[in-house]
């Protein structure tokens, strides 16, 4: 077993599955409901049963020591801000040594499908290789440049496989119809992304697990919930079957 394989397996220590809370949204939006004070929010949810958190680089150095009991996934790509047009290519702005020095257990970067996807693919592939030299697992989050297509079967179905073919260790995608086909044809673990706050998120999560997904990476549906710890508990129960 290689160091990369060992580090990837560690991420799925919870019955072979993983539950992450995504707290990286302010890199794009600035302060938002539920993340006005990110360290306070992190402290509030730390006792919950999630396995890890997705965080921006600047938050790592502010974390309480207890946070390192969770898996910490660093968002290493950027896509502009709420004041600009959403970028079709998300540059990677954190190098592997910095990610290791900050205590990241894995990194996550974006692959945008659409008019600039050849350049986006080249960037993703090049940075996957750079992180793998240091045995750092890479999560690729797949989105369409047309946000309305992120739940479209063809986009999710093809996008998950494309990300895997580029060499990532884990794929993060939105839910779509025939989700089982997405999982069946993707040779690496698939995590379900949450997207906008949705009252039906638990139903989608149940179906994703039935379809073979290896877990969830949910943000607004958790940190904007009236009781985020309870929501995490419900999601954790789904993973435990």
Task: State the gist of this model.
The chain has helices at 3-11, 26-29, 38-45, 57-60, 96-102, 117-132, 153-165, 179-184, 201-210, 220-223, 228-240, and strands at 18-22, 52-55, 71-75, 106-113, 138-144, 170-173, 190-193, 215-218.
Give the helices and strands, then pairings.
Elements: H1 3-11, E1 18-22, H2 26-29, H3 38-45, E2 52-55, H4 57-60, E3 71-75, H5 96-102, E4 106-113, H6 117-132, E5 138-144, H7 153-165, E6 170-173, H8 179-184, E7 190-193, H9 201-210, E8 215-218, H10 220-223, H11 228-240
Parallel strand pairs: 1-2, 1-8, 2-3, 3-4, 4-5, 5-6, 6-7, 7-8
Helix pairs in contact: 9-11
Question: Can you describe this structure?
Answer:
The chain has 241 residues and is of the alpha/beta class. The chain has one domain (3-240): Aldolase class I (TIM Barrel, Alpha-Beta Barrel), CATH 3.20.20.70. 39% of the residues lie in helices and 17% in strands. The protein contains 11 helices and 8 strands. It has helices at residues 3-11, 26-29, 38-45, 57-60, 96-102, 117-132, 153-165, 179-184, 201-210, 220-223, 228-240, and strands at residues 18-22, 52-55, 71-75, 106-113, 138-144, 170-173, 190-193, 215-218. Strands 1-2-3-4-5-6-7-8 form an 8-stranded parallel beta barrel, surrounded by 5 helices. Strand 6, helix 8 and strand 7 form a beta-alpha-beta unit. Helix 9 (201-210) runs parallel beside helix 11 (228-240). The longest helix is centred in the middle third of the chain and has 16 residues, at 117-132. The radius of gyration is 16 Å and the shape is globular. The mean pLDDT is 94.
């Amino acid at each position: 077993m290689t160091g990369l394989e060992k580090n990837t397996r560690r991420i799925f220590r919870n019955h072979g599955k993983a539950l992450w809370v995504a707290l990286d949204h302010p890199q794009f939006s600035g302060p938002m409901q539920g993340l006005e004070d990110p360290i306070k929010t992190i402290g509030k949810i730390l006792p919950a049963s999630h396995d890890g958190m997705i965080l921006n680089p600047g938050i790592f150095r502010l974390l309480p020591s207890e946070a390192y009991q969770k898996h910490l996934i660093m968002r290493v790509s950027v896509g502009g801000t709420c004041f600009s047009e959403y970028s079709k290519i998300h540059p990677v702005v954190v190098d592997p040594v910095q990610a290791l020095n900050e205590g990241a257990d894995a990194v996550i970067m974006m692959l945008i499908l659409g008019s600039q996807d050849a350049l986006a693919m080249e960037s993703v592939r090049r940075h996957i290789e750079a992180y793998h030299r240091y045995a750092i697992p890479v999560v690729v989050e797949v989105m369409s440049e047309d946000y309305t297509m992120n739940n479209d079967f063809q986009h999710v179905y093809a996008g998950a496989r494309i990300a895997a073919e580029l060499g990532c260790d884990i794929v993060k995608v939105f839910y779509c119809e025939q989700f089982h086909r997405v999982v069946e044809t993707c040779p690496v673990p698939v995590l379900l992304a949450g997207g906008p706050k949705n009252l039906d998120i638990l139903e989608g999560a149940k179906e994703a697990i039935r379809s073979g997904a290896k877990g969830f990476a949910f943000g607004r549906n958790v940190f904007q919930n009236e009781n985020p710890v309870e929501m995490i508990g419900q999601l954790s129960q789904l993973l435990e079957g």
